[in-house]
């Protein structure tokens, strides 16, 4: 009986530990993290506070007519052409149509036409029916996703999703 109680107590403690630890504790940026990343350059898809992407000229729910020039914004990271990552906090934009943000450390798909890579470091693109045939009239989601030089996603925290209505 004592042993069962002991096991139960351990299990409860373990459960408490799990639930009391916020999921993003490891992502809380500290000076220490910053130094570690710069020194080791191991995790090339870790992100820091204040780093984000955004659509400078689109708001959620906006109605647009094609062609439409959509701009890509980023704060706290630098845009560079796709290449072997030498420095952290760099990468390029991706525009996803009707797709969800890409998990951190996972490659942004290359073959799916709903994932557009801007590996030259582009800061805008023209949404046209020729280049984006999936943008048929009606509601769609646009997701801006930042990824490193090897197209490895910085994750949902470095993405921005909005809804648009194509007229
Ligand atoms: Cu890419």
How would you summarize this macromolecular structure in one to three sentences?
The strands form 3 sheets. Strands 2, 5, 6, 7, 9 and 10 form a 6-stranded mixed β-sheet that branches. The chain has a two-stranded antiparallel sheet with strand order 1-4. The chain has a two-stranded antiparallel sheet with strand order 3-8. 17% of the residues lie in helices and 29% in strands.
List keywords for this structure.
binds copper (II) ion, 10 strands, disordered N terminus, Immunoglobulin-like, two-stranded antiparallel sheet, 29% strand, 6-stranded mixed sheet, 17% helix, alpha+beta, 167 residues
Describe it.
By secondary structure, the chain is of the alpha+beta class. The chain has one domain (47-166): Immunoglobulin-like, CATH 2.60.40. 17% of the residues lie in helices and 29% in strands. The strands form 3 sheets. Strands 2, 5, 6, 7, 9 and 10 form a 6-stranded mixed β-sheet that branches. It has a two-stranded antiparallel ribbon with strand order 1-4. The longest helix is centred in the first third of the chain and has 19 residues, at 2-20. The model is unreliable at 1-41 (pLDDT under 50). Copper (II) ion binds at residues 82, 92, 94, 108, 117, 119, 147, 151.
Write the layout of secondary structure elements.
Elements: H1 2-20, H2 31-40, E1 52-54, E2 62-64, E3 68-71, E4 73-75, E5 78-79, E6 90-97, E7 115-117, E8 124-127, E9 138-147, E10 159-166
Parallel strand pairs: 2-10, 5-6
Antiparallel strand pairs: 1-4, 3-8, 6-7, 6-9, 9-10
The structure holds copper (II) ion (CU).
């Amino acid at each position: 009986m004592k042993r069962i109680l002991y096991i139960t107590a351990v299990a409860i403690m373990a459960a408490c530990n799990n639930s009391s630890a916020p999921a993003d504790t490891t992502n809380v940026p500290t000076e220490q993290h910053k130094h570690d990343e710069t020194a080791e350059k191991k995790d090339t898809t870790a992100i820091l506070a204040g780093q984000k992407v955004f659509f400078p000229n689109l708001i959620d729910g906006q109605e647009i007519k094609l062609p439409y020039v959509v701009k890509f914004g980023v704060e706290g990271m630098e845009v560079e052409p796709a290449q072997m990552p030498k420095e952290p906090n760099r990468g390029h934009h991706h525009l996803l149509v009707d797709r969800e943000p890409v998990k951190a450390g996972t490659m942004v798909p290359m073959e799916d036409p709903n994932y557009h890579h801007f590996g030259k470091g582009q800061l805008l693109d023209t949404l046209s029916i020729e280049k984006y045939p999936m943008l048929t009239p009606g509601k769609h989601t646009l997701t801006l996703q930042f990824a490193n030089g090897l197209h490895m996603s910085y994750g949902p925290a470095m993405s921005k999703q909005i809804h648009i209505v194509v007229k």
